[in-house]
């Protein structure tokens, strides 16, 4: 076997292995989707019937009108505000660290990024006390505010902006643009890959944020999807078809966001670390 044939065989084997692993990874999600259209009696039948004998939509109706729509809309509000806020603050901070020369820029960036080493759980108690004093406890703002500022997002934008030639910024200055105009008219339009990357990461993190919701929320009308799923499971108990339907609805926005922005996602990840 020559080198070319060996490489082709190696690539084929790797492709087959990756395909098998992908199918194994997707199977639980496909089972969950299938079970959401079944009556409870058919959910655990064996061997598994991947395609239901009859599709029923009662599970989704039960879920949507059992307070789940409140949980869903609360999560939408929290996620949208967190994502928009994080993209804006991270983009502005990343531009400052990448394109504006000021004294202490590099040490400030290192210190800012070093905050990523502190575990999230370490801040829960101080935030709880602070939010109680500010009157934000048991409000959606207690979930929105921490998500608006992100050292990780700043790092992504800063690394991406360093790949944009400084000559573009200098040319904008010669045309009379200040930093804000340069950022909004020249730099930001070129940044769709990293914006999409951060939107995906931020949305998934905010949508699935269980710890903050558990600590800062006590009123059921304020619950987001993670707490709502737990509450719904407690209420429905053995109605597994409805529980699967609730799980599908909770994952649907994540799939929509990812599929909408996936063409920019890999490009954003690849270019974020090209230049330090």
TrEMBL record:
Main localization of the protein described in the UniProt heading: membrane
Keyword terms: Cell membrane, Membrane, Transmembrane, Transmembrane helix, Transport
Subcellular location: Cell membrane
GO BP annotations, alphabetical order: transmembrane transport
Domain ABC transmembrane type-1: 72-261
Membrane spanning residue stretches: 12-33, 78-97, 109-130, 136-157, 186-207, 240-261
SUPFAM superfamilies per record: MetI-like
Keyword Zinc: no
Gene3D superfamilies, alphabetized: MetI-like
Cellular component GO terms, alphabetical: plasma membrane
Annotated membrane topology: Multi-pass membrane protein
UniProt xrefs under PANTHER family: ABC TRANSPORTER PERMEASE PROTEIN MG189-RELATED, ABC TRANSPORTER PERMEASE PROTEIN MG189-RELATED-RELATED
Family membership: Belongs to the binding-protein-dependent transport system permease family.
UniProt protein name: Carbohydrate ABC transporter permease
